[in-house]
Amino acid sequence: MRFRLSAVSLLAALTPYALADVLVTSPAAGAQLPFGNIQVTWKDSGVAPALSALTTYTIQLVVGGQEASSQRPLVTCANNALFSAGSTATCVVGQGAAASTANGFFLQFTSVASEGGTVINYSSRFTVTGMNGVTDAAEVAGVTALNGATTGPTTVNSVNNGAAAGGGGAAAVGGSQFTVPYGLQTGLTKYAPMQPVPPTKITVNQFTPLNPTSAFTIATTWMPRPSVATTLTAAQTFSVSSMENTAAAASYPTGDMAKFLARWKD
Question: Could you say which architecture CATH assigns to the domain 19-212+229-234?
């Protein structure tokens, strides 16, 4: 019995790493880096799927909490880059991209598997110093809720159209699949983000795309049959409430105003 309990404890300890494949080694957890050129490095985590089973990757710098509703991609550091080209990249961060929130930044590493599907790994959290942009209330609240923790969001493994490595089951629809750039998705089902609700006032003076651009080819001949069966769009994240107006209706005009309005009855 003692041995069985130890085995269970060991399994529980290893569970968070069961779906890892890309391990970001820099920036380090809790690092404080000035805006500008931030160097990104990674390695094989030693757990399937291996880097050799991945083809291309996209890296985005993100600010916010652990949930997609409190996150905002700031910069696309690499887009459809080849793993075979090396294990380093440079993230160019502008000073006005956001505010310098302590441990409010992390990297979203989206990899395309050779067998189909994607896997999203996240770096540890770090701080980009010297920033003078704006971070909205939801993003700040998401970071504050972590109480200084430097762990990034949970890995999302959607290799082979949602099948986790080793037959662990499909990833839940409505999760981080909607944050994967559309052009990097494979399989019969694709996921599209919902356009966010415009704010009540303009707080930035520089336009930043929410998602990286996708490559396209202009058709000059008949195209093959589409391979995508369904595209799912994320649900809106805002809510609307209403109430009955209990104020009494205004009385009908009298006097000269009543005579004036009467002129238009015919």
Answer: Sandwich (2.60)
